[in-house]
């Protein structure tokens, strides 16, 4: 497959996606600094997320809408999404800036309005987040754009993954990559279950990659030997800033170290 002129496959170096996610911490300037650092430290692409708190959930104080345990313990879902979201009014500026410094930018949309925004910005690809794996109408809507589609499989059953791939193919998408993903933040290295990469590649006959939430590069490096052609890691300038996603994000020196190792594989 190919994204923005960059070929992705076993005959090429691993495609490295730096996930900005919530690491902008509410600052457009910080978002640009992270994009620039991703470029300077060798990432092929920066990925953002396109949603609003209102498009994800409702503003409710009921217990069902509160997070219990884990990294975001005590948050209302609405407040977490509001804090973590990348404002729609930033998108055009971020896309223009990424193009200006020559790094690919694309996004994970969470509804059709988000897709329409990304289409207006001529996004070169789309990412389906793990939690949207079962949103087949959204996958169909995106697949009809006939652009490369990267799909995370965290928490997905075999049938759910199969339905997502079939929906994408039947809707016109010819370039699909499945990201093996553990929806645990952060993910202990011993729980990464990397042999799933071979199973995904064999069963669905698509390129595979690793969306890696561990705190080191061991899983990413090992995944290459198991057929991964792309690696996605959350990326921040400084984990001590304590944003919603900083605890499981890598820093510039870690991204550079990963790229140095990949260059010798």
Architecture overview:
The protein is α/β, with parallel strands linked by helices. Helices cover 37% and strands 18% of the residues. The chain is built from 10 helices and 10 strands. The protein has helices at residues 28-40, 53-56, 77-84, 88-101, 112-120, 136-143, 158-170, 196-204, 218-225, 252-262, and strands at residues 2-3, 6-7, 15-19, 45-50, 104-109, 126-128, 149-152, 176-181, 207-212, 228-234. Strands 5-4-3-10-9-8-7-6 form an 8-stranded parallel beta sheet. Strands 1-2 form a two-stranded antiparallel sheet. Strand 7, helix 7 (158-170) and strand 8 (176-181) form a beta-alpha-beta unit. 40% of the residues are buried.
Major β-sheet strand ordering = 5-4-3-10-9-8-7-6
Q: The biggest beta sheet, please?
A: 8 strands, parallel
Helix content: 25-40%
- Oligomeric state as shown: single chain
Question: Helices and strands: which structural class?
Answer: alpha/beta
